[in-house]
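Deliverable D5.2: sample structural annotation.
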Amino acid sequence: MSNHDDLAFDLRPIRHKDCQAIWGILKDPHVQSFNDYSAEITKGDVYDFIQGDIERFYNQQGIRLVIVLRSSGQVIGSVGLFNIINGQGMLGFELSSQFFGKGIMQKVLEMLFDKLTTFVATPLNSVVALVNPNNSASIKLLKKCGFQNHEAHWIKYIN
């Protein structure tokens, strides 16, 4: 997936055993500054989020996939589509700050959209992303991945 073997990754559905890794990522101040989770997020909160993700997957209302390094099996982030209603889903993602700026999330989003029907059974015609306006890296990423700015949110139309 990456030009560097040590950055090659796979995507797989999130599991409860990913709780510790995801909690660690969400508690990182560099990640926390741009996400919508509370600074006081607990491991129990993350476990509950994962349970909700699993339920949304079974109800075909969304999916969260973890990003796993092939070289080590380390979970370094996640990407998800949520609240799938009437052909539209919400995009969410986070990545461990030690992997910022390496092009991983662009490859993750490309893989997600290339294999969208593999990951999500519900047909989608658009995906919405809400981004902190100060998060220039995520805005640049969304532009590269074909999202268009629509005032307070970004939209990618699916063919």
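Annotation notes: The chain has a mean pLDDT of 91. The first strand starts at residue 9 and ends at 13.
The annotation will be released with the project's public dataset once the embargo ends.
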